[in-house]
Structures are given as structure tokens and as C-alpha cells.
# Entry
Amino acid sequence: MIRRDFAIMLGAALLLAASGAQKVFAKAGVDSVEEVRTKVARLGVGEKARAEVRLGDETKLKGYVSRAGEQSFDITEEKTGVRIEIAYADVVQVKKLGGGMSGTKKAIIWGGFAATAAVVLYVTRGAFCDGMC
# Structure
């Protein structure tokens, strides 16, 4: 009975993973002007305020925020040192760079590790039991 339930759960998990169900839960990735302004303000200004900015024309800029104004902000590209002024309305998404993994990514990794450990322990339990399991 337990093996059948486990096989059904494992099959469902594999089916969801193979079908790309994770895309359904992903955020659309489009920030409003106020969200962009808030994210840029939260990043701050200076060389430690590294960000990746995606514009409406699918252009991606990587660098640090060198100035944050009321209607626009400046990104200084890391590789070239060129300073680019960007209006908040032109930005689709702002991502912080260099902050390590997010809490969600860590939770997914640890969840996968725990699930793998549970499967391995379930499959190999006969090797550790003396017939009483």
C-alpha cells in the first residue's frame, strides 16, 4: 500500500517537472514605474549598488547605479565605464547583482535535497533493517 502511494506521488512529481509546471508559478517579470523607483532607491548609489536593468526594447545593461533622480537614474557600465541615463518609465525589470542566492532558490535546493534523501532512505531501508521494518 505504501509503495503504491509512493509510486503515485513520485510519478506525479516527475510528470510536473517534465511538463514545465514551474513556469506557471513564475512572475511575469514586468515592474511598474513605482516598483522600479523603489528598487533603485533600495539599491542605493555607488559601486556597491550593482544591478542588471532590462529595458522595454529587450536591452540589458549591467553596472552600478551612479545617480538616482526623480524621473531617471544613471547606470555606469562595469566593463566600459560608460554612464547611461535611464528613465524609470523605460525600465521593464531591475535585478540586484552580486547578492548571492535568494531565499526561494535556497529553499528549492534544500527541498530537493530533503526529497532525494527521503527517496534514498526509503529505497535502501532494507539494507539497514533486520527484517522488522
Q: What stands out?
A: Residues 23-27 have pLDDT under 50 and may be disordered.
